[in-house]
């Protein structure tokens, strides 16, 4: 196998999923003869932030529970971190909800297992911080495993804003410390979606910040699609989990598990655990191609030909023993050509980007950090973008991004218009600012938005913008 198909000692077989925070690969551990899943993260350029990411990965690896995906190894290179984890065949809850409607017993089983996983994390003073359906795995036996504690941190610590909009709590948006009650709020959002078919605070993929901070969602339906009445106790529990004030939510996982157990005990026994049958339609197909061939280790690593050489044949350390001199010369010339083409292909090239005039909707400078203005905001975005991708070459109408030097060279005149546009917008309304960043190309676009607090310190705005810019320019195709 080629070296580029390995992460440390682990062989990579195929890509499972590519997401906003990193790519997940299916791999194989030749030493222990088992499949693994490897998730790749791009480490921050800042050294202290990079060390923090490693500490978080090591902290997550310490969790040991059948309800949590086990982390086997943490591998670090100069710019990336890979978490080598237990591979869970089956599907995730996002895939399952998109394929079928669950019965009440299945929903209660899912919520109970998630609560058990959160209880284990709480014992280690870990906050998950990104509890969304795609991070809830459904195993073939119908049990739930919680994964991707990628932004985990110490209980009560200040977190950055990398969590998905689907699981943000009010205190997350307000920049307050997070604890288990923040994860319970995300559990309430997940249960609301399972019971109603929609997220309580997301509309067409956009977060309604005012509803998240100040309004309760619409009441849950009186019954499920299969005609099962919704227990009043369950609706009340979800309302309690979605309380705006953490002090008004359940204070630990134990009380939530007790309520779920009491509700489940009232369900007829024939409906106790149908999740295995319901989830089977969404399970990923497992093929023989995903299992490595069982080649004896001695033949795989030390096998050598012992046939005698014929006249005119050459060999180098046992390699190419059946090649003639002309074939060796041709192979050397081909190798030189491949090296030259590789250097040409991978040599860094400029990535030209046009930045139109930003769209501002805010109440003067009162919404921006004290002592700053829109020019400061654009300066920060310009610096952070170049840190994320040094090959960027900006031009356009926006201050700071507009080039101050006029290039009248023949190469500049022949250069086509920039293939990419970067759209910047800031919308501040009723206590929340939404910074929108969108990359546009002919057949591709990527949008990221950040929630910012008017009047918050400039350092807070820069930290949030840094995370958003890293997401915007991470794991995306390059134009060469």
General description of the model:
Residues 10-261 form the Protein kinase domain. Pfam families: Pkinase (PF00069). Its EC number is 2.7.11.1. GO terms for molecular function: ATP binding; protein serine/threonine kinase activity. This protein is α+β, with helices and mostly antiparallel strands. The protein has four domains: 3-87, Phosphorylase Kinase, domain 1 (2-Layer Sandwich); 94-282, Transferase(Phosphotransferase) domain 1 (Transferase(Phosphotransferase), domain 1, Orthogonal Bundle), CATH 1.10.510; 313-347; 351-473, Ribosome hibernation promotion factor-like (Double Stranded RNA Binding Domain). 34% of the residues lie in helices and 22% in strands. It is built from 14 helices and 21 strands. It has helices at residues 47-61, 93-99, 104-123, 170-173, 180-196, 209-214, 232-241, 253-265, 275-279, 297-302, 325-346, 374-388, 410-414, 458-473, and strands at 6-7, 10-18, 23-29, 34-42, 71-76, 80-86, 91-92, 126-127, 136-138, 144-146, 153-154, 202-203, 206-207, 313-316, 319-324, 351-355, 359-361, 392-396, 420-429, 432-441, 444-452. A six-stranded antiparallel beta sheet has the order 1-2-3-4-6-5, covered by helices on one side. A hairpin with a 5-residue loop joins β9 and β10 (144-146). α12 (374-388) crosses α14. The longest helix has 22 residues, at 325-346. The model is unreliable at 151-161, 293-307 and 476-480 (pLDDT under 50).
